[in-house]
Amino acid sequence: MALAERIRTPQVPDLPTASWTNAWRIGQEVVLSGMTGHPATKQAAEHGQPLGAYDQTLLVLKKLEALVTAAGGHKHNLIKTVVYLTDIADKDEVGRARRDFFDGVYPCATLVAVNALVFPELRVEIDAWARLDVDLREATLPLSTES
């Protein structure tokens, strides 16, 4: 049986009241809980400058990267994400943030519209899976089937 190691990092602190774990490393796989831009999103909203979907997405992707790094990897080990949006119209801003973050090497992704997230200022939540033995920058591309 593979050992599970709880992943912790100061960039994504565990909440003392949490009933979940931010990330587990099981062998070469890292399973990451859904991440949001909280508490930065709450602080921005309280100052009258709410963060849009682009900024929230970048915050979340950086949290995921910090957890994967703490597990011994990097952002190109992320192989799958599920993005939850409170407004499907934000999909283009999420896509722009993903393009800026992943540098043209993208994990598999699912995009889902939901009615709400845990706090009203949240627009984006992302959960993810990573493989520390896979670097998507080294992925092989299929031969073109165009004639």
What does this structure look like?
The structure is a single chain. Strands 1-2-3-6-4-5 form a 6-stranded mixed beta sheet, covered by helices on one side. The radius of gyration is 16 Å and the shape is globular. The protein is an alpha+beta fold and 147 residues long. It has helices spanning 40-46, 53-70, 91-102; strands at 4-6, 23-26, 29-35, 78-85, 108-113, 124-131. Strand 2 (23-26) and strand 3 (29-35) form a beta hairpin.
Key attributes of the depicted protein:
147 residues; alpha+beta
**Number of helix segments?**
3
Main β sheet profile: 6 strands, mixed
Specify Rg, calculated over alpha carbons.
Answer: 16 Å
- The computed structural class is alpha+beta
Whole-Å distance between the termini? 48 Å
Report strand %.
15-25%
Mean residue pLDDT: 94
Q: In order across it, which strands form the biggest sheet?
A: 1-2-3-6-4-5
Secondary structure tally: strands: 6
Order of helices and strands: EEEHHEHEE
Helical fraction equals 25-40%
